[in-house]
Every structure is written in C-alpha cells, then in structure tokens.
Amino acid sequence: MTAQVWSWPGALMGAAVGFGLLLAYRGLPLRRRVDLNDRIAPYVRDSPRPSRLLTSSGVDLGVHHVLQPALHRLGAVVDQVLGGASSVRRRLERAGQPTDVEGFRAQQALWGVLAGTAGTVLASLRWLSNGTSLVGALAVVGLSVGGGVIARDQALTRAARRREERILAEFPSVAEMLALAVAAGEGAAAALDRVARLSTGELSGELERCLADARAGASLPEALQGMADRTGISSLARFVDGIVVAVERGTPLADVMRAQAQDAREASKQQLIEEGGKREIAMMVPVVFLVLPVTILFAVYPGLSELRLSL
C-alpha cells in the first residue's frame, strides 16, 4: 500500500524533472535557429545600433527573460482556445493599459501556470493523505489552470470598470473647468491644454493624449472622437459630440460648454441617486435575514418557555 501511495508523486516528480531537462536542452545555443526576421532585422532597423562599449558586459539571466519565450507560446495557445482578441484590446484601452494582446495572453498563461502549480501541490497532498483517484487529481489541476486564466481576464475587466468609475467621478469637475476656460476667451485646444496641465487623474491623462494626437497631425475633432472611443463612456461621448459640433459649425463654444457641464453635473447626481438606491436595497439584506429573525426570536422565546413550564 505504501509503494502504491508513493508511486504517483514519484512519477509526477520524475516527469517534472524530465520536462525541465527537455526545456534546458531545447534552450541550448546549439539548438537555437536563426529565423528570417532575425536575419533581416539589422538591415531594416530605423535607429543605429549603439556602441558595444556603452552596453553592459554582463549577461542578463533574469527569470523574466528566461520564461518569456515559453510564456508567449503558451499565450498563443490560450488565444487560440479563448479567442476574442478584439474584446481584450478594447478592455485594455478602457483600463488605460498598453494594447498588447500577446503580452496579456502571456500574463494569462503565467497565471494559469501558477494556479496549476498550486493545484498540483494540493492534489499531491490529497493523494498522500486520502489516496484519491488520479482522475480527480487531474481534474483539480485542470480546474486550477482554467481558474487562473479566467481570474486574469476578470482582473482586467475589474480594472477597466474601476478606471471608468474614476473618469466619471472626475468628469463633472473637468467639464466645469473647460467651460470656465472657454468663457474666459480661450479656444477649444487652449482650454483643453490648460485643463490638462492644471488637473490630475485619468481624464486629464486622456486629455493629454488627445492633445498629443492633435499635435501629431490629427484634427481636434478626430482626436476628441478618439478619446471618446477609447474610454467608451456614454456621457463623455455626448460631451465630445457637443464640442465637435460646435467646432465644426461655428456655434458659440462657451454656451455649449456650459450646457454640457450642467448635463455632466446632472448625470453625476443621477448616478449618485441610483447608487444610493442600490446600497439601500443591499442594506436590507442583513436587516431582513439577521436582525429581524433575532428580534422575533427574542420576542417569542419567553412565551415558549412559559408554555413549557405550564405544561
């Protein structure tokens, strides 16, 4: 019985050691093949190669550089299984992160590997203690890997939602500042520049990116529309549409800005009222399921005890 209990952990450890030796063999310099991209890269590079005298002579053997190729391969597998690259790119933009779908898939693969390692340790401990079946252990490992991959995806969704909430919280104040700057006599671009320099936060960063796009050659309406598309917030999109229409048709911008700022303030108040209603309903849960039963119990228990004594 002892030999059977220790056979599977020993087999798993032997398989892990063999897999590690195989990876080390495949990573040897003699096994590396130079592809076509590496051959033509020195001839099509835009910037000149720096001098070797200015570079460090040490060899970087960090874990990140060692595991990066394997993680990118696993990320490609995850992308083929899950798909939805456009949705991931969209959420990365909404979260304010670089739109690197391949890098995000590599992060998902890393989370899956870490969760799978934890699941393997848990399954091995259960095997040693209870002697569970091999199918159950493999199921635990597979569920752990899938849970790690899904957890990274959900973390991105939560990051995008939190950033949208911060932008919505900053939006009324930024709209008021833009209205004041335009009413003082500045143009749309100058007002955006002033507000971006004087304010801090997620929305000011989006304004700076919008101004950078405008300075790079895009027109101001196109840059503003790009900001609205990146954030994906309906109230901000309506604000941008009002500015774009005023700039293109020559409508007095100060009046439009004041009206848009008032609409943003009203939308913020409406959101606070809706959030308060949701929290009020959530507060009823402990009252109904915890406080009310205890109150009824304290009210009924003395009468029940008296009935028992009388009987």
UniProtKB/TrEMBL annotation:
The keyword Manganese is assigned to this record: no
Main location: membrane
Transmembrane domains' residue ranges: 6-25, 109-128, 134-151, 281-301
Domain of life: Bacteria
Membrane topology per record: Multi-pass membrane protein
Localization in the cell: Cell membrane
Residues in Type II secretion system protein GspF domain copies: 176-299
Cross-referenced InterPro entries: T2SS_GspF_dom
Keyword annotations from UniProtKB, A to Z: Cell membrane, Membrane, Transmembrane, Transmembrane helix
Entry-linked Pfam families: T2SSF
Family annotation (PANTHER family): INTEGRAL MEMBRANE PROTEIN-RELATED (PTHR35007), PILUS ASSEMBLE PROTEIN (PTHR35007:SF2)
Protein name as annotated: Type II secretion system F family protein
